[in-house]
Structure formats: structure tokens, C-alpha cells
Amino acid sequence: MIRDLLGKAVSMGLGFAVVSKEQAEKFVDELVKKGELNKAESQQYVDELVRKGQEAQSTLEEKVRGYMRQALHEMNLTTKDDYVRLTQRIGELERRVAELEGKQPEAGQTLPPASS
């Protein structure tokens, strides 16, 4: 009976949002007032509701992240890691070009022609 009530609470939305301890306590207090739960068990069920809410939120967040990653991948967008790596590579290439442009060829050496 109590498991059914907890299942209903989770399916009603308590488990799919961040269930604050205050929200869970209020819900459980109502069950105690209605006689559907005794006071001795109430803290255990508050903790269980909060835990189930956190688990459901984590599961939902992971699914959303997965969907977002997949959508971004399908859109062929640059990731933050790619952007940082490419920015660093461009900086290194700019440094090398500046270094090459600033050097004079030594006797008998020529710089490679600049490609356009």
C-alpha cells in the first residue's frame, strides 16, 4: 500500500523534479494526517522520496545531455574542445609564420615561397 503511494507520488511528478526535503515532508505529513502512513515511518519515506527524486532528475539530465550531444553531432558543430585545440594550433602557426617572416635567410639558404 505504501509502495503504491510512493509510486503514485513519483509518477505524479514529485520524482521528476528536484524534490526538496520540505516538499517531501509536506507530502508525507498529509499521508500521516490521512492515516495512510504512521509517524514512525514518515522520515524513512521522506528520505526515499528525496532519493527517488534525485535519481529521476539525474536520469532525466543524462538523457537530455545525450539527446543534446547527438543533436549537436548531427548538426556537425565544433565542440568546445575542438575550438580550443584549433585556437591553440592557429596561435602556434601564427607564431611560426611571424618567426619565419622575421628571419633573414642565412648565406646559401632561401626561405620557401609563400603559398597563396
Descriptive notes:
This protein is mainly α. The chain is built from 4 helices and no strands. It has helices at 2-11, 21-34, 39-74, 80-102. Helix 2 crosses helix 3 (39-74). The protein is rod-shaped.
Ordered list of secondary-structure elements with their pairings:
Elements: H1 2-11, H2 21-34, H3 39-74, H4 80-102
CA gyration radius, whole angstroms = 31 Å
Cα(first) to Cα(last) distance is 78 Å
Let me know the number of strands. 0
Into which percentage range does the β-strand content fall?
under 5%
Shape: rod-shaped
Instruction: Write the element-wise H/E pattern from the N-terminal end onward.
Output: HHHH
Portion of residues in helices? over 70%
**Count of runs of 4 or more consecutive helical residues:** 4
Structural class per helix/strand content? Answer: mainly alpha
Structural descriptors:
116 residues, mainly alpha, 72% helix
Give a brief description:
This protein is an all-alpha fold and 116 residues long. It has helices at 2-11, 21-34, 39-74, 80-102.
